[in-house]
Please model this.
Amino acid sequence: MKNNQKGFAKIIWAIIILVLLLVVAIFWGLRTKTPTAAGTPTPSVSSTPQDETSGWQIYRHFNYNIEFKYPPDFAFINPQGYFLQEPIVSLKSAVNKYPGTNYSESFFTVSTDSNKDLKCLKGEDGKKLLTDKIGVNGIEFYKDKRSDAGAGNFYDSTIYRTFRDGTCYEVSLTIHTTNIGNYTPGTVKEIDPKEPMKVLEQMFLTFKFTSQ
Model:
C-alpha cells in the first residue's frame, strides 16, 4: 500500500514540474516576442491621372464664344471637312504623322448655320432624328457618321451637333486615308483609324461654350 502511495506521489510531482516548466516557457516566450504595431494602416500609393492635353494650345473665338484645345503639331488651314454652311475654324494634323501607312491627315473643324432649325439634329437623309447623344462640358451633342471617297482617297468623319440659341453648331472629326490597293503589296500598312481618331476625340472633349 505504501509503495502505491509513493508511486502516486511521484506522478503528482512529475505533473506539477511539467506544468511549472510549461508556465515558464509561455512566460519567456511572451517576453521575447517582437512587438508589432496593431492597427497600423497599410500605406497605399495613389496615381494622379495624366492630362494628355496639358501641353496643348487653347483656341478661343470671342464672336461665337467657343473654346477648345489642340496639339502643337496641328495647324490652322482653310476650312475643310465640314457639313454646315458657315465654317468657323479648321485645323489639320502634321504631315507624315504615321509614316509607312496609308494615313494622310486629320481634320478638326467647327462650323455653324444660323439658318438651320432642329433639322440640323437629323441624319444625312434629313429625316431621322439623331439619337446617339453625348454630354461634353455641359453641352448635349448628337453624334453622326459621314463618309466620302474619290480618286483613291477616303474621308471618314464623325460629327457632333448641338442646337443653341437658334443656331446649329457642328464639330467634325475627319480622317483622310488613301486606298491601300494603290500601293505595292508589303510596302505600306493600313492604319487603324482609332489611333488618329483618338487625338481628334481628345480635342473634341475640350470643346466648350465660354458664355452661358
